[in-house]
Amino acid sequence: MKKIMLLIIFTNSFAYLCLGQTFLADVEFDKVGCEQVEHYVQGQIKNNTEKFSDVKPSLEPTASTNGFRFHEREYVIKDSLADVWSFYVHTNPSIAWNASRFSFAMLFSKSSNELIYPNGYVDGIDPGQIIYLNLNLLKFKKLATAFEITTVDNNKKIIEFSYVEDNITHGKQQLTFTQMRKGYTKIVHRTYFKSESTLRDHFLYPYFHTRLTNTYHRNMKHLLKATEN
After folding, report:
1. b/e 130-147 (16+ beta carbons within 10 angstroms → b)
2. pLDDT digits over 72-100, tens only?
3. Is residue 64 in a domain?
């Protein structure tokens, strides 16, 4: 009798856990509105990534960066560290990641088990969010990518996000915010990356990545300025 009861409890618990999971096959691609992202997600499914809980960052915050190439850019915003940090952390990702060179496709939150589509509301970034973007590399070339927010450190003023394991490029990006003497804020955007292509890592990635990071921070500057007017 006890074995039967334990089996019933185990079965019910397993069923509950399954019901609480969101599968990649559950994505409503008509809301995403991006063929590249649809193909990207279908590729993840073919690679046996069935649930969003199965999506993992390719580089954890504490993992070694040995063997990864390095890229760094600095940006200055003429506003206080407190205001800039708060704005970067609390801006809706669907707005922050929507500009000329990229568009927000969707976001999955591991903490709330919720899918957010374009025009959906998210109160900023949190660890465990997986963000899918459509990159406009050239007029004739678009590419989907996905990364997971892994660190939002309010004390050290550091944001980190890692490309997911299914991505062509592996690695992470780190944004460090510091106060400057004039009361401005400096953002150091560091990237650790590698793929299976030497041509991509040495020539293509640095060029297009610089264009994308420039667009991202320029967009954030414009959005911050708009809130102050």
Report:
1. bbbbbbbeeeeebbbbbb
2. 999 999 999 999 999 999 999 999 999 99
3. no
| Paired tokens of 218 | 């320029």
Question: What CATH code is carried by the domain that includes residue 110?
Answer: 3.30.530.20
In a domain, 63, yes or no: no
Q: What is the DSSP string of 136-192?
A: EEETTEEEEEEEEEEEEETTTTEEEEEEBTTSSSEEEEEEEEEE-TTS-EEEEEEEE
Q: Does residue 62 form part of some domain?
A: no
For residues 207 and 136, give the distance between their C-alpha atoms in angstroms, rounded to a whole number. 13
Handedness of CA 197, 201, 202, 208 (dihedral sign): positive
How many independent structural domains does the chain possess?
Answer: 1
The parent domain of residue 33 ranges over 2-55+69-228
Reading the block at residue 166, the tokens are: 């299914």
Return d(Cα 8, Cα 23) in angstroms, integer. 25
Q: What is the pTM of this model?
A: 0.89
Q: Residue 98 corresponds to which tokens in the numbers above?
A: 């929507």
Q: What is the pLDDT of residues 165-222, one digit of tens each?
A: 999 999 999 999 999 989 999 999 999 999 999 999 999 999 999 999 999 999 999 9
